[in-house]
Each structure stands twice: as structure tokens, then as C-alpha cells.
Design goal:
Blueprint: H1 2-44, E1 49-56, H2 72-84, E2 91-98, E3 107-112, H3 116-124, H4 134-151, E4 157-164, H5 171-183, E5 187-193, E6 207-211, H6 214-227, H7 235-243, H8 249-260, H9 316-350
Parallel strand pairs: 1-2, 1-4, 4-5, 5-6
Antiparallel strand pairs: 2-3
Helix pairs in contact: 1-9, 2-6, 4-5
Length: about 350
């Protein structure tokens, strides 16, 4: 008799166990699919090194270097062609030229993937011209890098390489924009081409190199591009994608967008501060002889001010907490479903 009862209970619970197993399997498969989708998105994210070269094409670049055989501009062109031919595909290059003779477009090579043929054509067209508005072009190059960083959600590296042979004529702008660009995370390197004196930027930027002959100019460019990226670059950023993998796509996208909006506005500008709601000033009371003033329709509500920099930067603890919360909700749901199925089967067996 006990064995018959045990067999009966086992037979009654068999469908329940099957349903529980199917429920757990479906939940696990759903979680695996979600994680694989997030992992695919993370693996598809590419990390690029971005370098904008600001090339001085002022009139003094038409002068020879100290060897008296090579023009400064010719040496700069040759060095850029030689070094960029060795740049890996993960490096995005932009060439910004100022004061070139008959120049129509300042971005002779827009920031993007390497294209040796297009770069060679752009360099061949450059001829020395007139002045040295270096400060204005520091801003243009840095603003382009900041815009690209915002589009890339802050991933990658961003570098501004200045090749010049003289002091800027807009010194005030140089002194204003150089520290601001560096404070925003832009690395600035300067190469002084056959200058009599050390450039004033030498003590204000991340690195400064003198190039008094074509060989030194070529070596300086190679050293700078050797520093671009490097082993282990963006390792922490890559791990961040793994951390947010279990988070829903909408929430993860909002987190990345919040991170990307901080510090990427153009140089010289600041994020819009919160503004207090506008109030209509009180009007004097109408006199007995004056007709009543018509009622004005209520003003539409003002849009909320954008979040401040501190509010828009989620912390690591918030990300980890969201991950733990999502995992906990998932596990609790499975436990509740299994308990309900078991209780339901037990009630049926008793009947």
C-alpha cells in the first residue's frame, strides 16, 4: 500500500515537475538570449584612437630648415605621409590646416578612417600662406574631437597634434583654449619645426618636441603616434559593457548617454544651468473708471532644465546595484513560479 501511494504521488507530480523544468528552462533561455544580445552589442562596440593634426601653413613654413636644403613645409608633408602609412586601422585621423595659400577648406582631411591616397592629395595641395591664428584652430580641432567623443559615448582616445614653426598671433585664444581642452581630457602634443626659440606651449601641453631637421621631424611624429593607444587602452571601458549587460537596453542606453553629455560641449561654452521658473510681475490694481483687463491665457510650462554634470554621471555603485536588483528580481520570480506550481499539483493530488 505505501508503495502504491508513493507511486501515485510520483505519477501525479511528474507533470508538475515537467512544467517546472520547462519554466526554469525557458527563463534561463530568455536570460541567456538577453545576455547574448548585450554581449553582441558590447563586442560590436569599437574603440578608436582619434588624432587631429593641426598643421601650420603660415608664410614662415616656406623657409628652409637648418640643413638649408629642405623647406619646412616639404619636410612636414613628407613626415606626415611616412608616419601615417604605418598607423593601424583603429586610429582615426583628421588634418586641419590654417593660413595655406589659396585655401578653401580648412579640414583638408576630415576626421575619419585612414585613406592614404586622399591624405596624399590633400597634403600635396597645401602651400604656405600668411598668418598664424593658432588659438582659433586649437578650438576648432578640440571641438571636433569633443563632438566625436560625444558620438562615441566617451569611448576611445582623443589627441590634438600641433605642428608649427612660430608663435601664435592670437596668444589670448591660445592661453584660453589650451588649458580648457586639456581639462576636458584632450591630449595635446606640439612639434616645433626649426624654431629659433622654444615655443611658449612647451611648458603648457602634454608633450613638446623640437624638430630642427627632417629626420628629427619624422622621429617626433613616430614617437607621438607610438604613444597613441597602447597596451590595455580602454580596458576599464570594455569591462563597463560587461557590467551593464544584464541591464535592460533602454536603461543602459540612458546611462551611456548621460556619461557622454558631460564635458563634450565646445570650448568656451558651459552646460546650460538650471533656471528658476519665470513669474509674471504683479500689475497695479485697476481703478474704478478703467475697464477690466482681459484675462491672459496661462503660460505653457517651461521645459525642465537639463541635468547638471554631477546628476548626469552615474556611479559604479548605481550600475552594480542595478545589476544585483535585476538578478534578484529574476531569481525571486523563478522561485515564486516553482512554489505556486508545486502547491497547485499537491492540491490536485489530494483531490
Amino acid at each position: 500500500m505505501p508503495s502504491a501511494m508513493l507511486h501515485l504521488k510520483t505519477t501525479a507530480l511528474a507533470p508538475v515537475r515537467t512544467r517546472c523544468a520547462r519554466a526554469v528552462s525557458a527563463a534561463a533561455c530568455g536570460l541567456a538570449v538577453c545576455l547574448s544580445l548585450h554581449a553582441t552589442r558590447a563586442s560590436a562596440q569599437q574603440f578608436y584612437d582619434h588624432v587631429v593634426i593641426v598643421l601650420d601653413a603660415s608664410g614662415s613654413m616656406d623657409q628652409p630648415m637648418r640643413d638649408r636644403r629642405t623647406r619646412k613645409m616639404d619636410a612636414a608633408k613628407a613626415a606626415i605621409k611616412t608616419v601615417l602609412a604605418t598607423v593601424p586601422p583603429s586610429t582615426r585621423i583628421g588634418l586641419l590646416v590654417f593660413s595655406a595659400h589659396g585655401q578653401g577648406e580648412e579640414w583638408v582631411f576630415p576626421l575619419g578612417p585612414r585613406n592614404d591616397a586622399a591624405m596624399t592629395q590633400a597634403l600635396n595641395r597645401i602651400q604656405p600662406g600668411s598668418s598664424t591664428p593658432l588659438g582659433a584652430f586649437i578650438k576648432k580641432g578640440a571641438d571636433r574631437l569633443l563632438a566625436e567623443r560625444a558620438a562615441q559615448f566617451g569611448y576611445g582616445t582623443y589627441r590634438l597634434l600641433i605642428v608649427t614653426d612660430g608663435e601664435a598671433q592670437d596668444t589670448e585664444l591660445v592661453n584660453r583654449y589650451t588649458p580648457e581642452a586639456m581639462a576636458r581630457g584632450i591630449t595635446i602634443d606640439v612639434i616645433g619645426v626649426a624654431m629659433r626659440n622654444t615655443h611658449t606651449l612647451a611648458t603648457k601641453v602634454h608633450s613638446y618636441r623640437r624638430a630642427d631637421d627632417p629626420q628629427a621631424l619624422n622621429r617626433a611624429l613616430r614617437e607621438i603616434f607610438a604613444e597613441v593607444g597602447g597596451p590595455g587602452k580602454d580596458a576599464a571601458l570594455g569591462n563597463a559593457f560587461e557590467l551593464i549587460a544584464p541591464i535592460p537596453a533602454e536603461l543602459a542606453g540612458a546611462m551611456l548617454q548621460a556619461l557622454a553629455t558631460s564635458g563634450n560641449q565646445p570650448l568656451g561654452s558651459r552646460p546650460s544651468p538650471r533656471t528658476a521658473p519665470r513669474t509674471t510681475p504683479a500689475r497695479p490694481a485697476a481703478t474704478a473708471l478703467a475697464p477690466p483687463a482681459p484675462k491672459r491665457p496661462p503660460s505653457p510650462p517651461h521645459p525642465p532644465a537639463p541635468p547638471s554634470r554631477a546628476e548626469s554621471r552615474p556611479t559604479v555603485f548605481f550600475i552594480l546595484g542595478a545589476i544585483l536588483l535585476a538578478a534578484g528580481v529574476f531569481l525571486v520570480g523563478i522561485v515564486i513560479a516553482v512554489v505556486m506550481l508545486v502547491k497547485s499539483s499537491q492540491r490536485r493530488a489530494r483531490r
